[in-house]
Structures are given as C-alpha cells and as structure tokens.
Design goal:
Distance between the termini: 19 Å
Radius of gyration: 15 Å
Largest sheet: 8 strands, mixed
Structural class: alpha+beta
Number of strands: 8
Strand content: 35-45%
Order of helices and strands: EHEEEEHEEEH
Helix content: 25-40%
C-alpha cells in the first residue's frame, strides 16, 4: 500500500434503514457486494478503491480516507500545518484512524493498518 494516498471513501446514511437501502442501491446499479462489520457499517472492495457505508445521523459528504503507515506522525503533521483534529485516534477491526478538518473546512481521515502498527511496535 502506498503512503499518503486516498485508499477509501466512506458514505454516510442517517439510519440503518438508509444504510441497507444504499447497500441495495449500489448492488443493483453497480454490482457491489458488501461485508457487514456490525449493525452500522458495511464495506466493499468492488468500488475501485475501497468504500464503506456507515450510519451517521448527521449525514455528511463522503469521507476521503488517506493511508499513512506512521499514523502519529501524520496526526502531528496535520496539527503543525494548521488542521484541526475532529476525532482523536481510535481503533477499528483493520487498524486505527483519526479525522481532521483542513483549512478549507473539508473533513478527511487518516488510517494505518494493523501490519503498519506491528512494524512500529
């Protein structure tokens, strides 16, 4: 996986009903198959780059997710460059990530996988 590249887009749904409606929509239109990661999250690799559907009551524009093996270094660089952290580093089944707002107001995320975490440990 290449560092500092967008590897994932996350689309929001207001509730589980919309989540499953979106899953059926993308499956019918594009043939995308989804894997469930609990009641509120689905993802697919059928969309070109990875993408997911999540329940988020305040539906937001799609979330671009950038891969960076050195998650803490990216976190510190975001702050140093004038970005605002809007969600602190958290773990999920594939690794860890955080969300930030850039100076133009866009919210993005940075993630690191479990393999990168093991290499640092």
């Amino acid at each position: 996986m290449n560092d500092n590249t967008i590897t994932y887009l996350e689309f929001a749904a207001a509730d589980r009903e919309q989540l499953h409606a979106a899953q059926q929509f993308y499956g019918a239109v594009f043939g995308w198959q989804y894997q469930s990661w609990g009641d509120d999250y689905l993802d697919t690799s059928d969309s070109g780059i990875g993408s997911g559907l999540c329940v988020n009551e305040t539906v937001t524009p799609p979330l671009a997710v950038i891969y960076c093996a050195q998650l803490e270094a990216a976190y510190n660089a975001v702050i140093a460059a004038g970005g605002d952290i809007v969600q602190e580093i958290f773990s999920f089944p594939g690794g860890r990530r955080f969300h930030f707002r850039d100076p133009a107001g866009n919210i993005l995320a940075v993630w690191s996988d479990k393999a990168a975490q093991s290499a640092v440990a």
